[in-house]
UniProtKB/TrEMBL annotation:
Residues 1-100 form the HTH marR-type domain. One of its GO terms (biological process) is response to stress. This is DNA-binding MarR family transcriptional regulator. PANTHER family: MARR-FAMILY TRANSCRIPTIONAL REGULATOR, TRANSCRIPTIONAL REGULATOR, MARR FAMILY. Keywords: DNA-binding, Transcription, Transcription regulation. GO terms for molecular function: DNA binding; DNA-binding transcription factor activity. InterPro entries: HTH_MarR-typ (IPR000835), MarR/SlyA-like (IPR039422), Tscrpt_reg_MarR-type_CS (IPR023187), WH-like_DNA-bd_sf (IPR036388), WH_DNA-bd_sf (IPR036390). The lineage of its organism: Bacteria, Bacillati, Actinomycetota, Actinomycetes, Mycobacteriales. Residues 1-28 are annotated as: Disordered.
Amino acid sequence: MVLPAASRARQSRNTSQCRSGGRHKQSMGELVAHLERRGYVERTVDPADRRARIVVTTAAGRRALALAADRIAGIERMLADELGDDALRALRTSLARVPGLIDSDAREA
């Protein structure tokens, strides 16, 4: 989530990633710190707002994204071959609902 968001824009703020990813600021900060320790992203000062930080994908992060995209494409081809296109679409739709179901369950607890 962080790597794709930062990669698409080449950079992004934690707050915009929280909004798009549905995460809390603290958990997003922890995730960014984890990726930064591994060399996939860097945090820099936003020149437009010196209080804010921008998350930038590094070359290692872009390589990891490319590798992940290739692997995901291979898995999707295999699933399409085994399940068929309609079943794969249904699977994607169902899986896309999972985060919302988990979040609503957590709010009720």
